[in-house]
Design brief:
Layout (H helix, E strand, L loop, with lengths): L14 E5 L3 H12 L3 E5 L7 H5 L3 E2 L3 H6 L3 E4 L4 H9 L4 H4 L5 E4 L5 H13 L3 E4 L2 E2 L1 H7 L2 E6 L2 H6 L1 H4 L3 E7 L3 H29 L4 H8 L7 H11 L9 H13 L9 H15 L11 H7 L5
Amino acid sequence: MEIPYPKPISPSQTRVGWIGIGVMGAAMASRVISAGYTLTVYARTPEKARGLQERGALLANSPADLARKSDVVFTMIGHPSDVRSVMLGDEGVLSGLSEGGVVVDTTSSHPVLAREIASAARAKGCWAIDAPVSGGDIGARDGKLAIFAGGDEGVVRWLSPLFEPMGRATYMGSAGCGQSCKIANQITVCANLLGLGEGFVFAEKAGLDLKQFMDAVRGGAAGSMAMELFGERIIDRDFRAGGFVEYVTKDLGMALDGVEENVVVLPGAALSKQLYLGMVANGDGKLGHHGLITVTERINAIAK
């Protein structure tokens, strides 16, 4: 029997599995269905899969069961501990995946774990790609995510037909490099959101109209993709989550804890993490990370 990789990917022949159908995962999985692929889903709470089932998705009983029915398995879950369990557990994906199968972890996870999963996959004749994403719920819904792919470059190229409905994939290097890129991405995004929120607080205190302020500065050096994605949502007090604050603190924590030999001093990331922990302490851990302005407002005794 011809093994899935390197047999070319096509909607008529490639069976896709998906684990993790929260805000981001459900939108990404929906894009795969829209591209014509047969999709099998595993969800710890099966009711959450109802919307995808109505569009034709099948339901698996466990990660291993899903893997047995799939050629390529995507995951978009919460924490590295969840990734380890789903991938490497007794009923995990790698216990059920056939030779030549590929797993693609789009979760923001640890580079060391990504390398461990890649090694375990190769030991049984499979491949693992770490491919975390950036772009939030809007990017997931519109198929405009930035995808940071680490692992075997040939496998990443092979996966292009599946990446394309979700966004633009960039090959970052060997296993773990996708995760390292995502951590660096989070450091940058959080710094942008901190500056954006403080700029808004100062501008409003000075009596400026916030939308007028944003329109005035967005074309200059103060402009950023963070402003384009989140500026109006912040002004409108729309803090619905594309990515939960509790996951942002996880990502910043991985940066600050050091990644093996990559131990660097990051005072801005440390400040961002403390402020995001302030959101969690205030009961706002399930808000989107663009809600960081609420911490600055509390410090300045601004009630909204």
